[in-house]
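name: query_chain
kind: protein
chains: 1
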Amino acid sequence: MDKKSLIELKLKCLYYGIYINESTVKKLQNLDTYFVQGLFSHHKKDVTNYKIPNEIILPYDIVVQIRNSENSPVELISEEEKFFIKDKEKGIKVSIKFPKAPKFYEKLTSDGTKMYKVIQLTGKDCLKIYTSNYCEFEKLKSVCKFCTVDSSRRLQDVVYNKNLKQIVETFKEAKEEGYYGHVMITAGTYPTEDRGLVFISEVLNEIRKETGLDKIYGSVSTVPPKDMKYIETIYNAGIEYLTFNLEVYDEKLFKKYCPGKDKYIGREHYFKCYERAVEIFGAGKVRSNFVAGIEPLDSLIEGFEVLAKMGVVPTVTMLSLNEKNQENMGKDFKLPDIEYYKELYKNLELIYRKYNMKPAWCEKCRTTSLEHEGKYLL
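structure:
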């Protein structure tokens, strides 16, 4: 099976989800892989009574997040102790692997916390650090309507508010085992002027002190701080990229689907912070993620173009609906067809080429998007 066909299969896995029957689920329970779910893990089918691996690996080391679904033309099957992804529409099946669980997952921090509860591995060597799983917009009843944090919490077995010592100790252990290629640090949404950037700066500075690293490869992702002076604070802490996720470009749809961000931060403030961040970090070192599937394709592509022209790298996460966020989005809201996403990734690739930009993360770690693979769809 050629790589283009495998990229199209990855797209189907993310778009439709993956069906796993009960007998296959039972065979998955004792795999040497990681089952801990990330902050935005979500499934269309209830998985609270058993464990589901977080990711699968297709040929060419294409890593895909598992989104368990009751109704999907894509199925995870088992034959003679081997596992496959089967595309029932095309009548093909592809052998898959699961990433092995890292040894540091079962080790303890000095306060007795299992390290998998502090930092999670995704893909080949991306360490996900959620300093807090808290979003102030939940308290304000203005959470983004597509968000899956609420429904994913019951899947998680993690520390919701990590302290500096837990994070640094776990990072050091993961690095010693060879799992540090880059980091994705997410700050949650703090009700403070700095939006958590001061605490993350302390974490980064302590990691560099303890490891001797001059710079931390990867990205810090949060909402823009109220005072832009904190953009320089996080830059001085040695992080490579800074990310402020606008999520929706269209102004009216941003207001509708991101009510907290619209009311308490403001779309205009996002753009002011993008300008300042590019001044400090440099063009191509600032990012903004979009949730694809909410707005018309033309609007989203316009957003890609506007931000890229500013020096901000546009990135994409594919919207997936479960019972909770479907209710929030509205019962009449429907995802666009799969061709929407093919066109989206083609255009995103062309914008990367036009502005000489690199996609986010690396090809072996971006499990929820095809930012690296749009070239195979052209």
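note: The first helix runs from residue 3 to 16.
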